[in-house]
Structure formats: C-alpha cells, structure tokens
Amino acid sequence: MTDLAPHELRVLVAVGRERGFSAAAVALGMTQSAVSHSVRGSERKLGAVLFDRGRSGATPTEAGERALAHARRVLRLLEVMGAEVRGAGARDGAGGGSAAVSGPLRIAAFRSAALHLLPGALARLTARHPGVVPEVRIVREVGRGTAGEVLDGRADIGIATVGAASPVPPELVGGVLREEGYALVHPARHPAPRSLPLVDWAENCSSYTRDWWAAQEWLPAATVEAEDDGAVLSMVSSGFGMAVMPELSLIGAPPSVEITDLGPERPTRSVGYVTTPELAGSLVVRAFIRELRAAGR
To answer: Is the whole-model pTM more than 0.85?
Structure first.
C-alpha cells in the first residue's frame, strides 16, 4: 500500500468536517474535481470506501471514521513536530537552553472541570509559555466523552472521569489528577431533605459507584433529569429537590443550598487526563499536565 501524503490527509479531514466535496473544495481553495480525485486516490490506496456520496453530501463510512481519526492525529503530530523544531532552533540561535513551548493546545473537558480546573492551569501555563494558544471544547462526559475526542484526533488532551468504572481506553495513556467524594446537596434549612425529589443529570450517572447508589434505600429513582450539574444545582437552590453531586460541581455553591457529607462509605470519582502516547511526549502536553497536576492538588 502506498502511504497517503499530508495533502491527501488534509483533503479527507476537510470532506469529513464539511460533510461534502463542494464545501471542502471551498474551504481548501481547490476545485471540486480535485477534491474528488484526491479522495478516490486515497480510497484506492487504503482499499476501502471512506465516504457515502449522496444528494445530502458526503457521510463518512465506518472505515472513513477510522481513517479521519488517524488523519487528524497524524496532521496534529506534524504540527507539533514543526512547532518543537522551530522552538529548538530559536533556542539554538539564542545561545542554547530548553526548547520553547508554543503553538495550539486542543483541550476537551467536561463542564465542571472546564469551570474549576482549567482556568488556573491555563493561566499558569500561558504565563510560563506565552506562545501556547489553548483551544477548549466543552464535551459531555457520556458515551465516548472527552476520551473519544482525543481518539478521534479532535483534541490533544481530554479531562475525563477515569478509574474502574471509566477506564482509560487502551489506545490512550492517562493519569489521575484528583479524587473527589460525593455529597448530598439540598435546600438550606429544609426540615426533611431526604424526602425531596431526586434531581440528576446524565453525566453524573456514569461517574459514581452504581453499587453504592443501589444500596441506598433512602434514595428514590431520579424524577427529574437536568442537562448538566449547573442546572441541577440551580434546581436544588430553588427548593425543587435534592441531589448527590461530586465536589468539583459544588465549588462556589450558593448559600441557598446545604452540603451534607455522606460519610466514609460515600461514592467517589477520579478526575484525570487522557492523551495519545505520541502526544504525551510533546512539550506542550507535558507542560499542561504539570499545571493540571498543580491545579488538582
């Protein structure tokens, strides 16, 4: 099989992003026929159909989704190589020292991590390395979550829930940043908070220990499903119900809610990071992980 060239990978990524050959051609400054020719050539080299063509555009096949994930990751590694080589060259010209850390850093994070872990870490990172340009995407931590963004080549690093219930995918590497417990949250001064309806959100269900949850006879089934932890906290604050929430979601909770410890057997979750083995060794990702670890303490 003949390897695909970087320009062929860029065409594939553009077609996947734009969901069409014409739109991809406009984005790339190419003709539609040139884009079609490039995609057909890539399909021949790979031995698989990468896009279903139709009136509505071009939709990646299963093989196409895999090809796009690899294409994004390869192109990102080429960008990182260029940034690190230029940084090393600049240092050599200035009389030595460590290579400069610069360039974009693509981060995927779930909401509470983006609100409470990222700001401090990014502030320190960019203060030490002004050439770094962070790009943050908020991703719901359900299904493939932030790890899926990294696997698909859309993010360099993901802030994820990790551990026994949510193991790091075998294609990635990662580590734990902080362990946090869950607490009962209810309207302040309510005489019987455990009698209130239970408010929950989809991301929460995948992150705490289900065995613990099932063993709590006092906990009813959730009667209200909110979009995210912020909406849950708002409902609890207004007196609508109670919730079981992780510590990270309770930073800055209003005085209208009361936080009650669930005791030594309370459920916990691990918040960590995931990245690819290749990017784990890059200067920008290593620098960011150092700042994340400091923020997680």
So the answer is: yes
